[in-house]
Amino acid sequence: MSANPQTYANNFDLDSDQQSILDQANKFSFNELYPLAEKMDNEEWWPDEAFPKLGETGYLGITVPEQYGGAGLDLFTSGLILQAMSRWNHAFALSWVAHDNLCVNNIYANGNEDQRRTYLPKLCDGSHIGALGLTEPGAGSDALGSMKTTATRDGDDFVLNGTKLYITNGPVANIALIYAKTAPEKGQHGISAFIVETDTPGFKVAQKLTKMGFRGSQTAELVFEDCRVPAGNLVGKENEGVRVVMSGLDLERAMITPICLGICERALELSVEYAKTREQFGRPIGEFQMVQAKLADMYVWVETLRTFNYRALIASDQIAHGEAGRGEIHMLTAASVKYGGEMMNKVLNEAVQIHGGSGYIWESEVNRLYRSIKLLEIGAGTTEVRNLIIAQEMLKD
């Protein structure tokens, strides 16, 4: 059932197994996640029953081996599932990828055997939700250099103090992978990663944040006040957390692009349906050449995004853990999410234009999709940071 990257690379199409995975995930997402989307958007509401159901159906721990409770598949497969989820409930899809890629895959890739056996089964069966804490107030694009959260060794523990901001799944997470400075004098080379259980004394959700888009995907400010974390929860080596961060960021960028693709696919579908049924001047607006031109442009943008998305996922699948954060993959994943954000902007702008006044109404589905644009131009490094990554890699000797 595992995807075959070479097959896709040669044929520019999904093979039968890949198409089956996408179709199954699409059916599940339509039946189980789509009905939740409107309430999530209206109320910033979180469906507590959803993650256990995902665990039961095998949609958690996609890249984690079966011995730890996962599905034992690859990143490309994970991207297909995310693409399908994003078509029908992009807010939930964001929470899913924050859990499954940023937290779960990171623990599997960088954790030791005890950490894997302790935490991965609960994260894979849906009884626990995962989050990742990197960004801080005043430290967005310069998340590493400006990090102020510290972790001080005290016997068999590290004591964490600081604040993390804009943390997806923060209000509902049971497990968080947190980055803190263990040697502040070393700058970004003094950062370490820790698994933090959110019921630990000293951990607090300071505030749940209300957003413009991706509403219902829970986002929070997290505060650590003398939060004692066992030294055994250090992920990787002390002061080498930057390696975990950078390799994880490239995979995160590769895994954000399927969200863009799924949203764009749905926006195009809604626009075609609307153009067929909305009548003006006695005929469907789809008969007007200006509307047809918009639909044609949207189709081209979606298809080119699909190709770039899949290429980045394939490339990410073919690198070993720890090899990301530099070179071709660093440039490619930054480029793929840059392109994804830009195409989302184009596709959704035309989708709302085609829908006219109805697209401007908050409650409409296309309006919900439109409000998702900006996050994908900011998250996992802004468009400007992505440009820097691409240019700097090209200019290296």
How many discrete domains?
3
Q: What value does the average pLDDT take?
A: 92
Spans where pLDDT lies below 50 across 5 or more residues: 1-11
The name of the CATH superfamily of the largest domain reads Butyryl-CoA Dehydrogenase, subunit A, domain 3
Series of secondary-structure elements, N-terminal to C-terminal: HHHHHHEEEEEEEEHEEHHHH
- Helix/strand structural class: alpha+beta
CATH topology of the largest domain: Butyryl-CoA Dehydrogenase, subunit A, domain 3
Assembly of the depicted chains:
single chain
Radius of gyration: 21 Å
In total, the number of strands is: 10
| Silhouette | globular
Sheet with most strands: 4 strands, mixed
- Strand line-up in the sheet with most strands: 1-4-5-8
Just name the CATH architecture of the largest domain.
Up-down Bundle
**How many alpha or pi helices?**
11
Q: If you had to describe this structure to a student in words, what would you say it looks like?
A:
- The protein is an alpha+beta fold.
- It has 3 domains: 5-128, Orthogonal Bundle (Butyryl-Coa Dehydrogenase, subunit A, domain 1); 131-235, Beta Barrel (Butyryl-CoA Dehydrogenase, subunit A, domain 2); 241-395, Butyryl-CoA Dehydrogenase, subunit A, domain 3 (Up-down Bundle), CATH 1.20.140.
- It contains 11 helices and 10 strands.
- It has helices at residues 5-11, 16-43, 50-57, 75-88, 90-110, 113-124, 241-277, 289-317, 327-355, 365-370, 383-395; strands spanning 130-133, 150-154, 157-168, 175-181, 191-197, 203-208, 219-230, 234-235, 279-280, 283-284.
- The strands form 3 sheets. It has a 4-stranded mixed sheet. A 4-stranded antiparallel sheet has the order 2-3-7-6, covered by helices on one side.
- A hairpin with a 2-residue loop joins strand 2 (150-154) and strand 3.
- Helix 1 packs antiparallel against helix 8 (289-317).
- The two termini are 41 Å apart.
- The relative contact order is 0.11.
